[in-house]
Amino acid sequence: MAPVERYLGRIVTGPREPPLRLRSPPWIASCFRRSLVVPPAMKTLKVGAILLSIWSGLNLCVAAGVTVGTFLERKPPALALLLNDSEIGELDPRAIAVVNAQATLANPCIVALCALTLVVVWTSLIRGARWAWLALFGTLLPLQAFGFVSDAFLGHRNLGANVASSGLLLLALVFSGLGLRSLRKRARISR
Q1: Is the C-alpha dihedral spanning 56, 164, 132, 48 positive or negative?
Q2: What is the distance between the alpha carbons of residues 176 and 125, in angstroms, rounded to a whole number?
Q3: Residue of 47, 34, 32, 39 whose CA lies nearest to 182
Q4: Residue 82: its pLDDT value, please?
Q5: Where are the domains of the chain?
Q6: Is 56 exposed, middle or buried (0-12, 13-18, 19+ CB in 10 A)?
Q7: What is the pTM of this model?
Q8: Measured CA distances, 6 to 3, 17, 18, 82 (Å)
Q9: What are 115-124's pLDDT values in tens digits?
Q10: 11: alpha, beta or left, given left = phi > 0 and alpha = psi -120 to 50?
């Protein structure tokens, strides 16, 4: 239909009636605001940052607890997973010293890595720094994978904890990665 015919048709038939709009209660309209229906990239990134903080905080607490226990000369938790108290008492003190030395070295390193993760997450990742996500991805996933390798030496006694920890870490990295990707898309579109 040509523009002139459309114009003439409006004159003959009169103005078009507006389409029928059903009015909904105000509380329903507030549920469909843009911020609630489509979560912005920052919300997705923030959820990822919070999940990474939870993962890091839980690992930090466990490592700090083992470190304190080692300094207080309690029995090593790794040995307690495999042996009862009488069997640990029968062990050569040099074997216990090796386990304590490993715990004294590894657990403070885990505490430091978790603290560094929290700093990187809340200073750089939350601001959209891609390098921060790549650094966390490249360091935390191998660390988590070696948690399974370490647990294999103990007969997979902590398999449930490792699976839960890995799931939380993967979920956190996916959310933060999707948030960063959305931020980058928006930045490209707005240019």
Answers
A1: negative
A2: 8
A3: 39
A4: 80
A5: 42-190
A6: buried
A7: 0.72
A8: 5, 15, 17, 86
A9: 999 999 999 9
A10: alpha
